[in-house]
């Protein structure tokens, strides 16, 4: 799909979620092997520290052309000069974010086709759909949707599948119609995070 959403920025095929606990020195290498999206997700940081983290991520990966979005916080995304924001059910509403930031990439967490339709109506650029598989990275999520939940949601917005995805599972979610994937554990809990990211990139292909 590769839809151009704003200023020539495309919805990434592989988004690596990054927290303040991760080794930021690896980010440039990940971007260089083809990770084309990074999401700054650090739930416990103050706005000030989250902005500093996002600025570091932008500096590390923008030279390679990767997109950076900030989880939860539109204000921080704007302050850090990031490309976009990812909004969930307890964050600023997509429509409000779109009014404030017409040119930003906006992602919206979705759990069904109806959610994706609503996100598109409100101005989102992509839908994060999940959890596709069980995940050890976040508590309190609904039961896994399974890869079969992707196909019915296709055709409204680019779908970024999230939840329990690693190199071995990329193929089936893309075959089901996902545009891309977003990953924590499949990269950061691998003994060699850059190699893991490169393997996912190779599974995504051109
Ligand atoms: C690509 C993508 N999809 C979904 C999520 C989940 O976002 P959210 O519902 O806001 O939950 P938290 O990540 O804030 O815990 C995401 N971050 N990225
Ligand atoms: C942060 C997050 N949100 C999800 C959702 O479905 O909304 S799944 C998830 C965790 C993704 O981490 P991993 O790649 O380690 O499973
Ligand atoms: Mg969020």
TrEMBL record:
Cofactor: binding comment: Binds 1 Mg(2+) ion per subunit.
Cofactor entry: Mg(2+)
One Gene Ontology molecular-function label: magnesium ion binding
Gene3D superfamilies (UniProt xref): Aldolase class I
Keyword presence, Magnesium: yes
Function according to Swiss-Prot or TrEMBL: Condenses 4-methyl-5-(beta-hydroxyethyl)thiazole monophosphate (THZ-P) and 2-methyl-4-amino-5-hydroxymethyl pyrimidine pyrophosphate (HMP-PP) to form thiamine monophosphate (TMP).
HAMAP family reported in the protein's UniProt record: TMP_synthase
Gene Ontology CC terms: cytoplasm
All copies of domain Thiamine phosphate synthase/TenI, residue ranges: 20-187
EC main group: transferase
Residues at which Mg(2+) binds: 72, 91
Species: Nocardioides antri
Family named by the database record: Belongs to the thiamine-phosphate synthase family.
EC number: 2.5.1.3
GO biological process: thiamine biosynthetic process; thiamine diphosphate biosynthetic process
Protein name: Thiamine-phosphate synthase
Metabolic or biological pathway: Cofactor biosynthesis; thiamine diphosphate biosynthesis; thiamine phosphate from 4-amino-2-methyl-5-diphosphomethylpyrimidine and 4-methyl-5-(2-phosphoethyl)-thiazole: step 1/1
Ligand binding (4-amino-2-methyl-5-(diphosphooxymethyl)pyrimidine): 39-43, 71, 109, 138
UniProt-listed NCBIfam families: thiE
Pfam family for this entry, one: TMP-TENI
